[in-house]
Amino acid sequence: MLAVLANRTYGRLFLAQIIALLGTGLLTVALGLLAFNLAGDKAGTVLGTALAIKMIAYVTVAPVVGAFAAQLPRKAFLIAMDLVRAAIALLLPFITEIWQIYVLIFLLQSASAAFTPTFQATIPDVLPEENDYTKALSLSRLAYDLESLTSPMLAAALLTLINYHWLFSGTVAGFLASAALVLSVTLPISPATARTGGIYDKTTRGMRIYLATPRLRGLLALNMAAATGGAMVIVNTVVFVKGRLGLGDGQVALALACFGGGSMIAALALPRLLEKLADRRVMFTAAIYLGCVLLIAAAFLFAVDGSAVSTAATVASAGLWPGLLATWLLLGLGYSAVQTPSGRLLRRSAHAPDRPAVFAAQFALSHACWLITYPLAGWLGATLPPSAVFCIFAGLTLVAVALAARVWPSDEAETLSHAHDNLAADHPHLGGESDDCHAHAFVVDDLHPEWPSRVG
User: Fold this and answer.
1) Membrane spanning segments where (predicted)?
2) Which pLDDT tens digit goes with each residue over 128-186?
């Protein structure tokens, strides 16, 4: 896997990704602490709304930018977006009103929504060999898991020395370093696309392929299952740790690190596991497991709430702090096990020219799930007891799993028999076969706009 780092251009781009992710991780911790400083026990609502704004930017901006990215000078565009993000992050420590958080987060995440798909589309051109590109995808996923583990730990260490406002400077440094690394390499010229049609067709092609493919509709439901567990952690950690347990900033970072640690453990174990088990089985098992962890946490909190535990000292002695760390670790395991195999599904669900569009659809749709779960976690966390919030989110997770099972058949075959009523008998695609006996590994494309009802 690490052999692809010998490619100088990709090696520097991967380093740019890691540094920018570390800066973004510091931003996540600092933003939670800033929200608590401004809103107190209502921080979950503020953070949930801010993260919902982030998702709105991702879902709305990314497809539009993706339609025009090929027409822009890619290197200059990436550098410009990094500099814009750095400038916005530089303003965050000076925020004094909650509405200012919302405005700056929208601007910063709009720049990220423009940067990320363009960056992802660059990697296949830098590494044109399929095997190298697959390794790069695995490294990218590992980088996200490492960031989830490392950033909170780094934040915890820094918070022993500095005020949380200084964490934003780490975000600025990360974006500036990313810009410098992109500047240091020569990027391939964006390949011309053979696709025709207007802006609507180009921006919705990936979405149409995605929603027409049963396994990807199942993936969308599983994205929702993963988002429920992840949103509970990201939105409500600061509220549970500081508001309910009365602990400090360092403990907030430690709790987030436990979630990242669980995700990292799963990511390291999954490659070998996926050699023996099908993607579907692993992902469904992990999603059901997520729902069970949330249910167990709800039952534990209900028991604690019913035992007249009130003060921070008695709450800690009741085992809530170690219980929270263990729950976050277990949620990280399940979350990663649901998310990691998704790239394998996307790769085999589209031809090479359509894969960027399908990956972009996954980017937008998965973030649409977070757009629902982020504010829901914040609003419910501000109005209901924690045990009730965990119970509701467990129910949402299991409903999502049931929906995924309904739209993604367990006996799905790679090769499907289907008819082409609109093709002449001598069409090259049929290869001389009888139209009634035509069968091959099926993906949705121009010749196959719909999933066949007959399976061979």
Assistant:
1) 12-34, 46-69, 172-198, 219-240, 252-270, 282-303, 315-338, 359-381, 387-408
2) 775 676 667 667 766 776 665 666 667 777 777 777 778 888 889 989 999 999 999 88
- Is residue 272 within 8 Å of 340, Cβ to Cβ? no
* C-beta separation of 185 from 191 below 8 A: no
* Residue range of the domain that includes 30: 1-190
Does one domain contain both 186 and 212? no
What percent of the chain clears pLDDT 90, i.e. is strictly above it?
Answer: 17
Q: In this structure, are 219 and 174 located in the same domain?
A: no
Give the distance from CA 265 to its chain's centroid: 17
CATH of the domain at 230: 1.20.1250.20
Q: Who wins on pLDDT, 75 or 66?
A: 75
pTM for this predicted structure: 0.75
pLDDT of residue 246: 81
Q: How far apart are the first and last CA of the chain?
A: 36
In a domain, 232, yes or no: yes
Q: Are 338 and 222 in contact (CB under 8 A)?
A: yes
Q: What is the total count of domains within the chain?
A: 2
Identify whether residues 255 and 346 lie together within a single domain.
yes
At 281-332, the pLDDT tens digits run 999 999 999 999 999 988 887 776 655 444 545 555 457 888 889 999 999 9
Cβ atoms of 441 and 414 within 8 Å: the answer is yes
How is residue 244 annotated by DSSP? I
- Residue 340 tokens, joined: 């990691």
